[in-house]
């Protein structure tokens, strides 16, 4: 589903070069739930942004569903995102003027889906997420956990092939984190969605079947957990 | 993305920052008002010019003349007039017969020809092609136009022609009947009844022992007084040109006048009138006639000159008005730049969610065009109000003035035609969009990463 080849990202700050990602090779299969872990500054977010095509790599390529995301122009990328990619943000990033339903339905608006159709779909998902009685609330009227659930619903509404999430539970307390994490895993499994998530919490990552560990822009561990107790570890 | 969704997004964003939107719209209102008002003043000047010119004559009429004062000028013949008649957009062309041999014409009327009417051919007695009288635009108020079966010297009278008959044996003012109502509102009957009394037209001889020629007139119709046409509509007579020519020939014969050029010479005219179907074609027809080598005169030639001047004035006024719209445009650009700066993050989110950049651009352009449109609509509305008040004040300050029919004339300082109202709204919307163009293009360059960064 996702193929990363020789990915390198270098930032230039003044005269200094910061190598944020160094020769990353990675393959993620369809329906896989993958966590990217690492210490702060290890390049997790940078990797995720390259994967989602939000930033162009310095070298190498990212191929999703057979299409080279790193080579797409903005217009193609926008359409590709509409149809294939969902995104969950750490700070929720809901539109402040819109209600929960409108926020969830928002990505479908870009696809040209009629208001009635997209809001019906949004309501159904919100119901599934136990937000039935918060449908018409604005983000400021919701708790952090509720806001993130709206954010999650928004990522799923377009039935994407891949969902990227950058520390989706970063702003939540441990109990809510647990709930949200379970919810994410459940829905992606149910819908066979490839899920790539960044977290700096190794405990949380343990729930995932696949854990990629970054240190200084390099993958140092890539563990695949076929089933409980059977850990297949690869060192790069 | 659907247009309806784009529109709703833009409208919601404008509503979100109400105070700022209203202030920016206010700028556009002032700008639109000043342009529309300035233009409307120009329109009022144009209209008053047109009214003035219209009072000088029929705007669809062209006079072609040849006073034989230059030998290389082509004579006006029946053939030439037929040629003009055949031109596009010419309603009718006819000579107005002038005679160098006929002196004062007297018409005797009433019992035993006691009352007299005096006039001249070409002025108070107008002779033209019989079939042209109708198309020339004389407005019948009684009777009918001439037809082919009418005998010679069947004529049409001007509205007040009957009142022009006076009693030569009495002193002024007792020798006449006033055609207008007296202090009791009573209009007295004239001395003669044109439809019943016998009317004898007589050519006064030029020399003392010359012989007069007489013909009996029959009046079949009356036309409305119309000073755009001439005196004949007031107190004169309109008749078939051929009757006047026959009268002239007879007069020449009985007085044994020697005519230069011989008898079989082709008839030529000093003056012909051409009526065009619409004012807008007058210029073209004039050009075509002058191309043929004739002099023309027309009230519209004055109008052209004045219109050029008015256009210059209007341009200067509009220029003054557009300064304030320019200021408004700058303020729109400023508002949009601020709005985009504030909404950087939202733009980033939209990009991450798959919004195409053309839609982001369209959203901001619609917002700025919306500001222009709102300002335009309200501005035009206020302009109408201002215009109404101005005209009202002007009319009451100038005191009442009356037109030729005695009706009160309003003084217009400002006229806003429908096209100007629409143009005002369209222009301010366009300016709004234009001002939003640079900010909107800045907005689409905002990186999707803006959504990710925590600041
Ligand atoms: N736009 C940028 N310009 C310059 N350097 C950058 C930029 N973005 C990231 N970096 C650098 O790249 C490295 C990786 O950053 P990144 O944000 O990917 O880390 P992270 O693993 O997500 O850390 P955290 O857990 O704190 O979010 C860091 O050293 C950072 O300073
Ligand atoms: Mg990060």
Quick tags:
heterodimer, A: 236 residues, alpha/beta, Rossmann fold, four-stranded antiparallel sheet, B: 455 residues, 2 domains, eight-stranded mixed sheet, binds adenosine-5'-triphosphate, binds magnesium ion
Short description:
The complex is a heterodimer of chains A (236) and B (455). Chain A has a seven-stranded mixed sheet with strand order 6-7-8-3-9-10-11. Chain A has a four-stranded antiparallel sheet with strand order 2-1-4-5.
Please, could you describe this protein's structure?
The complex is a heterodimer of chains A (about 240) and B (about 450). Chain A is α/β, with parallel strands linked by helices. Chain A has helices at about 45-50, 75-85, 100-110, 115-130, 145-155, 175-190, 200-205; strands at about 1-15, 15-30, 35-40, 60-65, 65-70, 85-90, 160-165, 195-200, 210-215, 220-225, 230-235. Chain A has a seven-stranded mixed β-sheet with strand order 6-7-8-3-9-10-11. The longest helix of chain A is centred in the last third of the chain and has 18 residues, at about 175-190. The two termini of chain A are about 20 Å apart. The relative contact order of chain A is 0.19. The mean pLDDT of chain A is about 90. By secondary structure, chain B is of the alpha+beta class. Chain B is built from eleven helices and 14 strands. Chain B has helices at about 5-15, 20-55, 80-85, 130-135, 230-235, 240-255, 280-290, 300-340, 345-350, 355-400, 420-445, and strands at about 60-65, 90-95, 105-110, 115-120, 125-130, 140-145, 155, 200-205, 215-225, 235-240, 270-275, 295, 400, 410. In chain B, a hairpin with a 5-residue loop joins strand 13 (about 400) and strand 14. In chain B, helix 2 runs antiparallel to helix 8, helix 2 (about 20-55) runs antiparallel to helix 11 and helix 10 runs antiparallel to helix 11. Chain B is elongated and about 120 Å long. The two termini of chain B are about 30 Å apart. At the A-B interface, helix 2 and helix 3 of A face helix 1, helix 9 and helix 10 of B. The complex binds adenosine-5'-triphosphate and magnesium ion (MG). Magnesium ion binds near residues 44 and 45 of chain A.
């Amino acid at each position: 589903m996702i193929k990363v080849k020789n990915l390198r990202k270098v930032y230039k700050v003044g005269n200094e070069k910061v190598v944020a990602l160094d020769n990353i090779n990675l393959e993620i299969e369809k329906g896989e739930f993958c966590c990217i872990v690492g210490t702060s500054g290890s390049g997790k977010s940078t990797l995720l942004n390259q994967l989602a095509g939000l930033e162009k790599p310095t070298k190498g390529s990212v191929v999703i569903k057979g299409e080279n995301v790193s080579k797409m122009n903005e217009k193609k990328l926008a359409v590709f995102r509409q149809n294939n990619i969902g995104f969950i943000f750490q700070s929720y990033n809901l539109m402040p003027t819109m209600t929960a339903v409108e926020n969830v339905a928002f990505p479908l608006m870009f696809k040209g889906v009629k208001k009635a159709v997209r809001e019906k779909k949004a309501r159904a998902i919100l119901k599934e997420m136990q937000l039935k009685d918060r449908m018409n609330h604005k983000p400021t009227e919701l708790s952090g956990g509720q806001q993130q659930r709206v954010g999650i619903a928004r990522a799923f509404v377009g039935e994407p092939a891949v969902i990227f999430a950058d520390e989706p539970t970063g702003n939540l307390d441990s109990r809510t984190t647990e709930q949200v994490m379970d919810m994410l895993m459940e829905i992606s499994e149910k819908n066979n969605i490839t899920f790539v998530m960044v977290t700096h919490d190794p405990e949380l990552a343990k729930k995932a079947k696949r854990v990629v560990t970054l240190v200084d822009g390099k993958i140092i561990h890539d563990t695949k957990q076929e089933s409980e107790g059977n850990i297949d570890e690869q060192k790069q | 993305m659907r247009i309806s969704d784009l529109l709703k997004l833009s409208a919601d964003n404008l509503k979100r920052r109400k105070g700022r939107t209203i202030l920016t719209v206010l700028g556009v209102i002032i700008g639109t008002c000043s342009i529309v008002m300035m233009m409307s003043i120009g329109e009022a000047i144009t209209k008053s010019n047109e009214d003035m010119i219209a009072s000088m004559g029929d705007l669809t009429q062209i006079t072609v003349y040849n006073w034989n004062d230059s030998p290389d000028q082509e004579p006006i013949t029946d053939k030439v007039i037929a040629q003009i008649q055949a031109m596009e957009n010419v309603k009718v062309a006819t000579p107005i017969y002038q005679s160098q041999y006929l002196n004062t014409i007297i018409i005797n009327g009433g019992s035993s020809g006691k009352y007299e009417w005096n006039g001249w051919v070409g002025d108070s007695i107008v002779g033209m092609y019989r079939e042209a009288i109708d198309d020339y635009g004389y407005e019948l108020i009684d009777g009918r136009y001439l037809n082919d079966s009418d005998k010679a010297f069947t004529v049409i009278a001007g509205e007040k022609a009957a009142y022009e008959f006076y009693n030569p044996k009495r002193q002024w003012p007792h020798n006449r009947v006033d055609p207008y109502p007296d202090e009791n509102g009573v209009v007295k009957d004239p001395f003669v009844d044109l439809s019943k009394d016998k009317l004898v037209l007589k050519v006064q001889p030029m020399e003392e022992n010359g012989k007069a020629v007489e013909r009996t007139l029959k009046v079949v119709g009356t036309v409305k007084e119309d000073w755009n046409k001439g005196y004949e509509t007031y107190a004169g007579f309109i008749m078939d040109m051929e009757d006047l020519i026959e009268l002239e020939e007879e007069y020449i014969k009985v007085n044994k006048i020697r005519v230069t050029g011989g008898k079989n010479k082709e008839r030529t005219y000093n003056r012909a009138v051409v009526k065009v179907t619409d004012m807008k074609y007058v210029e073209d027809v004039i050009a075509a006639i002058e191309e043929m080598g004739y002099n023309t005169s027309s009230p519209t030639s004055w109008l052209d000159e004045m219109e050029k001047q008015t256009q210059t004035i209007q341009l200067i006024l509009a220029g003054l008005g557009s300064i304030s719209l320019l200021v408004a445009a700058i303020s729109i650009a400023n508002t949009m730049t601020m709005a985009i700066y504030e909404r950087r993050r939202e733009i980033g989110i939209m990009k991450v969610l798959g919004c195409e950049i053309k839609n982001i651009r369209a959203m901001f352009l619609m917002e700025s065009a919306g500001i222009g449109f709102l300002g335009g609509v309200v501005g035009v509305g206020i302009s109408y109000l201002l215009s109404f008040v101005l005209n009202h004040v002007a009319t009451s300050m100038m005191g009442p003035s009356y037109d030729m029919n005695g009706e009160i004339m309003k003084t217009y300082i400002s006229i806003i035609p429908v096209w100007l109202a629409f143009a005002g709204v369209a222009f301010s919307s366009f300016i709004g969009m234009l001002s939003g163009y640079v900010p909107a293009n800045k907005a689409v360059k905002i990186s999707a990463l803006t959504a990710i960064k925590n600041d």
